[in-house]
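Help needed: design a sequence for this.
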């Protein structure tokens, strides 16, 4: 076995021991995504009840894009700039005041809802018309033909960008020390929301209730390993990046990302405008993508080849998942709140000595000594259950550019990721509206998700919470080679980054807005209203030019 496969096996064994020996966080994780919460789509609170306990997880501060024009839900193009890390490496516990991007985030991703006839809500088996707003089921009345619990099965696609610098994070799913890499992931949910029935125990133990298809973007467009959920977790090579076949990028590279449907399946094409290289992937049966079959009475876990297509034609408030905690279709999001320092790591990958006095560290797993690092020799934890005490670098202002004067210290702060408002169907027309949203209510102790009381954008225990701002492209100029130039870019960091033109209130509580009520199908069937996010609509797009 490769080093990464051995590491994965060791961590899987350690996770089983942790589930058997410890409290709710580990147990709940075993009921959801088998490969670890940092890489999974957050599920809504009603699913937590069905799954047998509260789902605690990671932060997904997001920027949502809305438009009623056809194609906005299934054919979008982004221009992106990857961040540079500082020239100096971090030291243990950030003693030298330097942070890198891997300490802020597990990944940054751009997403879209897919059809999956074997995924929640598990009402219309084998029925989902791709690329169609006929799939909008938004009634809150269980007797209605358009009740949300009667919607076609859906999955969520995330094109995830992974930063370089530390160990093979997330139990083997990471890129080399000096490069960014990117994977197409599709998360499904094997739960009957209307009747409270989970998929069979064999599947729950093998792939979890939230199975994931996974493929790095390759030069050929063919996965270097089988991307299906079972192969991914039974010794397959898809989770180990291969520099000979997979697109890998440098900090500072400018990218053009096209995500769109084809007759062969949903496809992503990523052009690195800086290096001239291109990677792509099609989520097709021909490429080995499969759906885990919802067979609650089966004694075995079974898959079938499946070609994924976008579920909707547009991206509006009505085009949402029936089971995801967030309300979006087309969106960009960071995955923050996982890395934490650990001064001494136990042989079972738990933390023996935290730099934070009194920190119980029951959320800090798996942990790695500095000897595991591929580049930056520090010891720390991935915190797959989420940094629930908000003491990691992602929650300190020192780790994010744009929080002091000067606004950006290139010697100590990683640059923010930057991207333009996506355009629709290969045109130069950007989305017409945006919204801000984050899922802190899903795991904030002070928040009552049933009423929205105490639910805020910035968790009470966090010193700082990063936000989206509008600004100008680092290095100047514009991405466009054709059509009118659009110099405005979105960036994710602090409110005072150099070139910022609008900070949208300047704080997380101002930007992400008020507790937002979402309706989920529950057993009965009945509609359950839950405040899983805080949300703020702008009703325009201030970065459309």
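Sure. Designed sequence:
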């Amino acid at each position: 076995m490769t080093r990464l496969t051995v590491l994965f096996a060791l961590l899987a064994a350690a996770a089983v021991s942790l589930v058997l020996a410890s409290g709710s966080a580990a147990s709940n994780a075993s009921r959801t995504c088998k490969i670890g919460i940092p890489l999974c789509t957050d599920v809504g609170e009603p699913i937590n009840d069905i799954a047998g306990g509260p789902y605690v997880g990671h932060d997904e501060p997001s920027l949502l894009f809305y438009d009623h024009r056809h194609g906005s839900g299934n054919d979008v193009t982004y221009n992106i700039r990857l961040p540079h890390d500082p020239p100096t490496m971090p030291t243990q516990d950030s003693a030298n005041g330097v942070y890198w991007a891997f300490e802020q985030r597990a990944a940054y991703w751009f997403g879209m809802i897919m059809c999956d006839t074997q995924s929640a809500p598990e009402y219309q088996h084998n029925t989902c018309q791709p690329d169609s707003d006929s799939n909008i089921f938004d009634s809150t009345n269980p007797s209605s033909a358009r009740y949300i619990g009667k919607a076609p099965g859906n999955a969520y696609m995330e094109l995830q960008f992974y930063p370089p610098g530390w160990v093979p994070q997330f139990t083997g799913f990471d890129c080399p020390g000096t490069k960014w890499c990117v994977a197409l992931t599709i998360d499904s949910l094997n739960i009957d929301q209307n009747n409270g029935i989970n998929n069979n125990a064999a599947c729950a133990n093998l792939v979890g209730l939230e199975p994931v298809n996974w493929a790095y973007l390759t030069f050929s467009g063919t996965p270097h390993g089988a991307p299906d959920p079972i192969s991914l977790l039974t010794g397959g090579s898809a989770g180990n990046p291969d520099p000979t076949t997979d697109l890998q990028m440098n900090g500072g590279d400018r990218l053009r990302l096209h995500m769109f449907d084809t007759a062969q399946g949903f496809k992503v094409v990523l052009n690195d405008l800086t290096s001239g290289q291109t990677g792509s992937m099609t989520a097709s049966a021909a490429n080995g993508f499969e759906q885990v079959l919802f067979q609650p009475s089966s004694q075995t876990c079974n898959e079938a080849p499946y070609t994924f297509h976008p579920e909707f034609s547009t991206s509006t408030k009505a085009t949402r998942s029936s089971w995801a905690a967030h309300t979006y279709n087309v969106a960009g999001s960071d995955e923050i709140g996982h890395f934490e320092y650990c001064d001494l790591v136990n042989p079972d990958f738990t933390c023996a000595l935290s730099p934070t006095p009194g920190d119980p560290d029951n959320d800090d797993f798996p942990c790695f000594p500095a000897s595991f690092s591929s580049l930056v020799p520090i010891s720390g934890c991935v915190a797959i259950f989420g940094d629930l005490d908000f003491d990691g670098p992602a929650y300190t202002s020192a780790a994010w550019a744009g929080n002091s004067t000067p606004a950006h210290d290139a010697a100590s702060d990683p640059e923010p990721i930057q991207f333009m408002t996506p355009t629709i169907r290969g045109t130069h027309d950007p989305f017409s509206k945006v919204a801000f949203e984050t899922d802190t209510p899903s795991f904030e102790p002070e928040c009552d998700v049933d009423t929205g009381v105490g639910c805020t954008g910035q968790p009470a225990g966090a010193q700082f919470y990063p936000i989206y701002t509008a600004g100008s492209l680092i290095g100047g100029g514009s991405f466009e080679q054709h059509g009118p130039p659009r110099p405005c870019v979105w960036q994710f960091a602090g409110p005072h980054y150099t070139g910022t033109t609008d900070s949208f209130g300047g704080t997380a509580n101002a930007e992400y807005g008020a507790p937002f009520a979402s309706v989920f199908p529950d057993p009965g069937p009945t509609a359950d209203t839950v405040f899983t996010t805080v949300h703020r609509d702008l009703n325009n797009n201030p970065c459309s030019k």
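The mean pLDDT is 86.
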